[in-house]
Fold:
Amino acid sequence: MRRIYTMGTEPWRRLGHLREQNVPKTAPQFLYRLFRHILPLARAELRKWTEQAEAIPNRSLREQALASLRHKRFHADGGSVYAAVRLPHAPRLTRLIVAIQTISDYLDNLCDRCGSYDEADFTQLHHAMRDAVRPENPVRDYYAARGALDDGGYLAALVRTCQTTLETFPGYPMVRDRVEWLVERYCELQTIKHIHPNARRDRLMVWSEPYQKQFPEIFWWEFAAATGSTLGMFALFLAATRPLTVGDAEQLFHMYFPWICGLHILLDYLIDLEEDFREGDFNFVACYPTASAAKERIAHFARMSAERSKSAVDGVRIHRDVVHGLLGMYLSDEKVGRQHLVRPHRRLVWKFGPNAWMYYGACVLYRFVR
Structure:
């Protein structure tokens, strides 16, 4: 019989007695909580979805679902850091973040490895992300453009998990508009990103143009990069675990978009710079006219992210920790040391002080134990 993870089973039960206001005050406290409590929760959720993926009848869908869970699980682990803020909410928040990140990674695999550039197909698949944040929406045939494919209810179960969990968040109505905006831009980006390589750059430029007036301080490729991050969604999910105002949600949105979201994806593309060049893949960092321009702009995103994170409406330090964690996670990657144009970016970690150094070390440890 398949094991079912619920609020009443381990490791959930031991978190229930903790007080709402018991939030980590220092980086070491946050890291202890992350490794001690949150990562086991995330791994339990990932095991659950792996068991369901193994039962997918269609061989191709099963392979892509399992590959995304196996090779991209650090995305779900990383997103789950937001659950470390308030442990009584950690089970629900981890369940939601792992589910929606699993949808994202699975759809990315399906688009990357389908052998076609069918924009209608990519749009239909990504309705799963849109429905996931709209609790009233019925699930639909997300594979409609691919024919009669049977995933055994895997993708629908992921969507319903997100929907039913969001319904329990008292502040979700206040953040919903901004969550939907982020999800819509994310889905649009993913659709354009997977069309024919020769058309991607021009389509991205046209798509991003209407947003230039709203975000005049960034280039079009920086806007596009920022839309590829799920961190803004996760931060709003965390805020929604408690009542808040629309104004609070707006402030949090503008903290993350474009700065923290942009830093996230620019670093992600930075470490793949030479690989993408060899493979002929589009890379946002390669859009900068020179390597020094890329270095300065990424540093600018890091500085702006750190500055904005100080004004968090909820007063918790998670947003500062996320900035330091992004620098630590990506710049500790072994691919950085192999690229002479990328290696100098590691100095950013040292410029951000002891907490950034600590997260750099924690990320090295994470790679060793994961």
Notes: DSSP finds 18 helices and no strands in the chain. The mean pLDDT is 90.
